[in-house]
Amino acid sequence: MNEKKLMDQISAIFGIFMTFFYIIVGLFLILAKTLYYIDPVLRKIVGFSFLFYSLYRGYRAYLKIKEAFFS
Questions:
Q1: What is the C-alpha separation between 39 and 37, in angstroms, rounded?
Q2: pLDDT tens digits, residue range 5-36?
Q3: How many domains does the chain have?
Q4: Which of 35, 55, 61, 71 could cross-link with 15 by S-S, CB 3.0 to 4.6 Å?
């Protein structure tokens, strides 16, 4: 296995972890009651932005995994 393929596989797996991280942060910002000092509308806007970005990251990670592991 060459180094480029190994780095592509590590990068693809890291992309999946980051996707889950963005989903968790987005849901936390939307649903958390402990962040009372942040404006609720701003919290929801940022939370939904994280969720939409996680969809994009997930799609890109899917393509990268498909390329790195199954080609």
A1: 7
A2: 899 999 999 999 999 999 999 999 999 989 88
A3: 1
A4: 61
